[in-house]
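Fold it.
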Amino acid sequence: MQEKLYFYYTNDLHSHFEQWPKVVQYLNQAKEQRKLGNDDYWIVDIGDHMDRVHPIAEAFKGKSNVQLLNDAAYNLATIGNNEGITLEHSDLFHLYDDARFQVICANLHSLDDVKPAWLQPYTKLHSINGVDIGIIGLTAPFNAFYELLDWHITDPYKTLERYINEIKESSDIIILLSHLGITEDQEIARKFPEIDVIIGGHTHHLLRTGETVDQTLITAAGKNCAFIGEVILTWDHTEKKLVDKEAYATDITHLPNDKKTIQSLQHLRKAADEKLGDTVVQLEKKLEVNWFKNTLIMQQLTNTLKAWTDADCAMLNAGVLLDHISPGNVTYKDVHRICPHPINPCVVTVKGDELIEVVRASFTRQFIELPLKGFGFRGKVIGKMIFSGLDVKTQKREDGEEYVVSVMQNGNPIDQEKTYSLATADTFTFGRLLPEVARSDSKRFFLPEFLRDLLAHTLRNWK
């Protein structure tokens, strides 16, 4: 006798709630189909369901996301970095208190040695006909951030070495829920052949029919839930082994919306608007925002960044503010809408010659007009870099390109051999946007505050 086991999964919704009613519609149809066939099925999420870019997630610190997962009858979830490092310790500690699904993440640990009641390293599922399925969860080890919030992420490979034999002893099938990214998933498949399936996320990769690395099936469904993933496993009870593994990612953007879910989101949005309705400041005049020019509010925000971090100098890209700030009553909802990014302040140390190179690079048209996606940035383009504590002189070439003539501090040229502390957005500590910042050996992140908290502080002290 052969038995089919079905897993439906989502990954990296990032609070794109406009897509969630379609997710629920698809899952409801899938559940009805499985019930008709008396099939075993489970619904799982691979993390980054929450993203505080959305006012609902911001207002309720992710608990609304848990409510939506509950309403959709999820069975399992692991956490992503957006759940892990964009919430204060207590908010993550209690995030899943009301979850009606199991949360598994084997490499998340509280530094105060008090484990959340909901957190388990792995779990066991049992099919109708007695197939035992061990499921373990792992998340990406951003410890430079986690440890500032009193959490620690252990190395994924060492974590698997600790648990894999224990799970194997009592499981017919092993599945990893991985918020580690495609490269790590592929390497884990090579090193841990015991794992039958890796359901992944984090790097927003889309594998329409999965990928096999050695004997392990790897799958993932892109980002923002434009696709939903399905894994179908066939267990042969006579041979007592897994005889087939299938993975599919289905485009659901054409599906109708589940009406009940739309109503729930409408109620949540209204409640979020009320929760974010506290006044930050009363403004007499409109504060202009321009991604390609220095404006008063961007200069003041950059000055706040420098003072907040006690750095020698600061720089911040104008693209972090998405809209003008209108006169009158400015609420936290307005602040969130204008600066929605989950971006933290950061201080790096750089040598004077590196600082000059960073300044020069930030004035290139290619940098200013870059339509950045990811690294916490939720805007359109990077925009013009604004400086505090530095006097930057520029000129324009015949082609209109602006270039740096000199970089001064307190009337003196930057000393190329001196070390400077530079405050900026943590965005620039990742990737290759500004290599001198990214490769700095000294990075100090400021958590849990976001740039919008500094914006609110700037507005409260507006004169």
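The chain has a mean pLDDT of 96.
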